[in-house]
Amino acid sequence: MQFTSEQRLDDGVLERAFTLGEVPGVLWTSGTGPAPLILSGHNGGLHKRNPRLVARARHYAAEYGYAVAAIDHPGHGDRPRSAADEQHRADLRRAIQAGEPVDGIVDAFIVPLVDRAVPEWQATLDALLSLPEIAGPVGYSGMTAVGIRLAVVEPRISAAGFFAGGFVPRVLREEARQVTLPLQFLLQWDDEGNDRQQALDLFDAFGSEEKTLHANLGGHAGTPWFEVDDGARFFARHLT
After folding, report:
1. Is the peptide bond before 137 cis (omega within 30 degrees of 0)?
2. Buried b or exposed e, range 76-102, using 16+ CB within 10 angstroms
3. How high is the pLDDT of residue 46?
4. Architecture of the domain delimited by 2-80+117-239
5. pTM, whole model, 2 decimals?
6. First to last CA, the chain
7. For strand 134-143 and strand 211-216, is the pairing parallel, antiparallel, or unpaired?
8. Among the four residues 30, 130, 168, 226, which has the most C-beta atoms within 10 Å?
9. In 186-200, which positions are buried (b, 16+ CB within 10 angstroms) versus exposed (e)?
């Protein structure tokens, strides 16, 4: 891991950009470590500096003392998109607009992304836990498809918060039954790009004994800010 820039923000949070091989990322810390760590995974089409992601990360660091890290998933942010990525995106947009089934496109697009992103997150986790300001335990917050696989294969993750507003391939819906860690699941009830019943079925499939569904009225980007603080309290129960 190489840090490429750093700045102290006006809320006292130290923001550092890093690279790990070809993977770019950002680490936010409050300087009060050694701290528990939250891995913040952006949803499809977004990136590590998405304003909503950054706002949550800074709030978790400044107000609760967590270390928070985000990386760009393959084909997102500062990472190049392949011709196949572009074609899958175009096919998905066309199918949604036409009201056609999207499962086959989602499987072809998201499964390879998850297969690449999860080992990258594990390598990032190795590097972050070697830093003196980070001690663990570790939580994950973000993209559900990546989070399901991480929760299944990565024993260092103690709790997870998933956002229901994204496409989850069929194979990962089956893997959800193997997720047993404490889980908080956020659902926007009127999400224009998310099948509500499919999200409810996914929540039902999770194998966790402790799982909580938070459903709020509104569209995809309308998650209320109070859910950020509620997420912090959820992580406090399991990471501190």
Report:
1. yes
2. bbebeeeeebeebbebbeebeeeeeeb
3. 63
4. 3-Layer(aba) Sandwich (3.40)
5. 0.92
6. 26
7. unpaired
8. 168
9. bbbeebeebeeeebe
Q: How far is residue 179's CA from residue 42's CA, in Å, rounded to a whole number?
A: 20
**CA separation, residue 79 to residues 36, 74, 93, 116, 143 (Å):** 28, 6, 21, 13, 18
Give CA–CA dist 184/239, Å, rounded: 14
Q: Is 204 helix (H, G, I), strand (E, B) or coil?
A: helix
Q: Which tokens is 158 given?
A: 């103690």
* Domain boundaries defined on the chain: 2-80+117-239
The owner of tokens 């696989």 is 149
Give the separation between CA 100 and CA 34, rounded to whole angstroms: 49
DSSP helix/strand/coil, 54: helix
pLDDT in tens, 23-65: 999 999 997 679 999 999 877 666 688 899 999 999 999 999 9
Question: Count of alpha carbons within 13 Å of 212, Cβ hemisphere only?
Answer: 12
Nearest CA to 158 out of 237, 100, 213 is that of 237
Dihedral, CA of residue 175, residue 127, residue 27 and residue 216, to nearest 10: 10
CA distance 36 to 67: 6
Amino acid 92 reads L
